[in-house]
Every structure is written in C-alpha cells, then in structure tokens.
Amino acid sequence: MNSFEELCLKVSHNIDAKEQRIRSRTEQEQVRFNYAVTYLLTDLWKKHFTHRDNHSSIQKNKNYYSALQIYHDPNLTYRMIIQAFDGLQKLNLILVTKEGHYDRIKMEGSLTRFKATDDLSELFDELDSHPAVTLNPNINANTILLRNIVDGRRTLVTYQEDKDTELWRDNLKKINTCFSQHMIDLRIKDEEYQSLQERLLMDNDKEPIDLTQKVLVRIFINNSFADGGRFYRGWWQNVPSEYRPYITINSKLTQEHDYSQLNPNMIYSLYNHELGSEDAYTRVLGPEHRETVKEAFNAMFQANTELNSKPSKLNLDEVGMSWRELREAILNAHKPIRNLFFTGLGNRLQFEDSIIAESIMLQFAKMDYPALPIHDSFIMHHAFGNSGELEEAMRRAFYERFNRDIGISRELVTTHSISEINKNEDLSDVFKADGPYSLYNKRNDLWFSKNR
C-alpha cells in the first residue's frame, strides 16, 4: 500500500465486509460513507504526525450536523460519520480514550476522544508520503466565521450574506489558494521538533503543530462584523516566538517584520491626535518595563469596564507598583485618549488591523508569494525583507487606511542567515536524508518531488 487514498478505500471496503449488511448502501450513501471514513482517517493521520497523545474527537450529537449549515460540510452526515466511526472500532483501528457526555442541567459537555491503534499507526508508517504534502485543503469551505457570547460561552452564530462577507471570503480564498501551493515548514532538529510538540500539547492555549493547517479563517466577534475579523488557524501562529525565525517557505529562509506600536498608532489616528515620537509604551515606565506596559495598555483598551482588578495574566512582580498605580500611569501618559480606555475599543482595533493584514496578504498572494500573518506581523521569504518590499507594503497598507505613516519594527527579523548556517553547521549533514534534520528534509523532498 503506497498512498493514503488507497488506504482509505481499503478501510472502507473492509468495514463494508465486516458489517454484513442486510441492505446495501445506495450509491449516494456509499459515496458519503467513503467520505466519512476518509474524513476520520485524515484527522487520525494528521494527529499521527503531530504527537501520538494528540487525540482526535468526534461530535455524536445528531443536531450538530443539521444546525448552522453555513459552517458545516454538506458531505458529512451524522448517520455516515457514526457508521464510519463504529466500523473503525470493529476493525481495531481506533481506540476510544474518553467517552463524551452532556449535562443538560449545566448545558456543558465534552466530545468523545479517540486515537489510532498500533495497527493503524503501522499502516500510516507504511505510507510513502506526509499529510502536509498529500492532503489538499478545502479552499471552498466557509472561512468567514461569526461568534457571539451565548450563556457565557463563545459560540458560532449564523448570519446573512452581503457584499462584504462575499468579498472577504473571495479575498481569503485567493490568499489560502496561494498558501496551499507552498511548503511552509519549521526547520529544527528532529529531537527538538518532538519536544516542541510535547510542550505545545501541554499548553492549554496552544495546539501541536499541524503542518497541513495552511488555510486561514477570519473570525468576527460580538455578533458583529465591525468587531474582530482577525485571521486564525495557520499553524505558524501556534509556534512560540523563539521558534518563528526557523519557519521556512519552500525550504527558503524567512524574515518577520512587525508594525511598531500598531494599536497606539491606530487609536491616535482614528481620533485625530498626534502620538508623537516617543514610544507609546516606554514613555510610561521606561524601556525596562515596556512589555508589561504594552500588555496592560492593550488590556485597558479591550475592556468594557474600568478594570479595578489586575488582568489575570499580567505579571507586576518586577514593576514595583500596584495595578491601580500602573493603570493611572498609563492614563496620565496618554491624556489625549484617556477617555477612550475601558470602552471596548480593542475589538474595533482588531477589525482595523485585519483590514490592513488582508490588504498585505492579498497583494502578495496575487503574485503567488505567501505573506504569513501573525496579527500585526508578517513572515515572508527573506528576499522580500532584504529588498524592503514587505516593509513598503506594510507602510502603504497602513497609510491607505489611516492617511498616516507608521514605523516597522525589525526586532523580529530572523537572526539566522545563510552565512551563519554555513559557518555553524555542516551542510552535508543538514541536507542528507538521515541525521538531525531528517524529518524536515524528508517532508521537503516529498514536496518538491510532487511539485517538480
């Protein structure tokens, strides 16, 4: 068995044989059943290449597949997904690790979780490819998501299409099409890759790296298309900042450029005030506490109340003042916009930076060059950083939105260059099939073989 497609067809056939059905499925039912088997095996295959403890989950609530049709895959039905799931269990290919439940009183529950058995893992190991190379993302899926808070929980809500949602979806389809046609990878040693996956698996706010996840979605919040709108679900957005310099595109080194003081610049521009030349954050307590002030500043703009209590994730141990004192210091340092704090303006700012991000990504996608977003920064092939093209595109996008100039930070530009690699590493070892980079090299060799 050499291909994933062949594996899926064989498993579907084996389930059919195991079931001994009295009535055969109709042609349409068989197509949807095969689709459900492939859907489950696809997720299991991807989890196989992230971490063996990164389990899959299945929604067993029948209503889930009929509600909010705007978001759901029409080819995936409740009856067929359950039959496929049961069939995989009968073939000893999956093992349920946690049964799902739902508490009707608390209106809370959890999904059924499962993982590949050793038998299925062996079948995956026999395949001659990698999910990031073989699997084609669904470019036609709905990528414009609207959320609201219902019963204290964030949940997707339906919406009526209009010219804005249609344009946003069309633009994002162009961007995602570009991304899907390139190999976006992380060039670190095999053993470090595995330890990073374990670290991400233990982080409640992160997910292990899934190199197949190159399709972005745009998430709006508060049941409003004027709030949020940022781009999410690219695997590179999950990577801790210290690893981002090692992201490659088609095996080429990258650079990351970041907007300087984006939120303060947007706020001052929106309300026609001058930010001035002094850094918006260092002007409060000096450069040594810049990151703490930045975090507090953004929390104060995100909040709808005056935040009498310290934000839970803010660490004040090294600042030497209370939360009330820090809050007042920030307000005094930004007197022209003092009345704008604690008004929930942060959600509006997210919409503004998403418009800028869309403009930048779309510009390069039309030329078939991925500009990978991390909210207010972008990762591209190093040539676009060296030539100044990325920086110019970022400046122009901001100016077109606010009619003002803004600085671009080079703090996050990659610290490893081709010359440093030549100096510090043996290239004959880096690019051979085995050795410390064997997993990275194998993935990229497969990609180039497929796209040669």
Tally of individual helices: 17
**Residues in β-strands, percent:** 5-15%
Specify the overall morphology.
globular
Structural class: alpha+beta
What is the straight-line distance between the termini?
23 Å
Number of E-type strands: 15
**Overall pLDDT level:** 91
Oligomeric organization of the protein chains: single chain
CATH topology of the domain at 239-263 and 347-450: Alpha-Beta Plaits
Q: Radius of gyration, Cα only, in angstroms? A: 24 Å
CATH class of the domain at 239-263 and 347-450: Alpha Beta
Largest sheet: 4 strands, mixed
Spans of at least 5 consecutive residues with low confidence: 411-433
Helix content: 40-55%
Helices and strands in order, then pairings?
Blueprint: H1 4-19, H2 27-48, E1 56-58, H3 78-90, E2 94-98, E3 101-103, E4 108-110, E5 112-116, H4 118-126, H5 131-134, E6 144-150, E7 153-156, H6 163-180, E8 184-186, H7 190-202, E9 217-220, E10 228-232, E11 247-249, E12 254-259, H8 262-270, H9 282-285, H10 290-302, H11 323-333, H12 345-365, E13 372-374, E14 377-381, H13 382-386, H14 389-402, E15 408-409, H15 418-424, H16 427-430, H17 438-450
Parallel strand pairs: 6-9
Antiparallel strand pairs: 1-5, 2-5, 3-4, 6-7, 8-11, 9-10, 12-14, 12-15, 13-14
Q: What do these coordinates show?
A:
- With 452 residues, the protein is an alpha+beta fold.
- Among the domains are: 1-128, Arc Repressor Mutant, subunit A, CATH 1.10.10; 239-263 and 347-450, Alpha-Beta Plaits (2-Layer Sandwich), CATH 3.30.70; 281-333.
- The chain is 43% helix and 13% strand.
- The chain has helices spanning 4-19, 27-48, 78-90, 118-126, 131-134, 163-180, 190-202, 262-270, 282-285, 290-302, 323-333, 345-365, 382-386, 389-402, 418-424, 427-430, 438-450, and strands spanning 56-58, 94-98, 101-103, 108-110, 112-116, 144-150, 153-156, 184-186, 217-220, 228-232, 247-249, 254-259, 372-374, 377-381, 408-409.
- Helix 2 packs across helix 3 (78-90), helix 6 (163-180) crosses helix 12 and helix 12 (345-365) packs across helix 14.
- The radius of gyration is 24 Å and the shape is globular.
- 30% of the residues are buried.
- Residues 411-433 have low confidence and may be disordered.
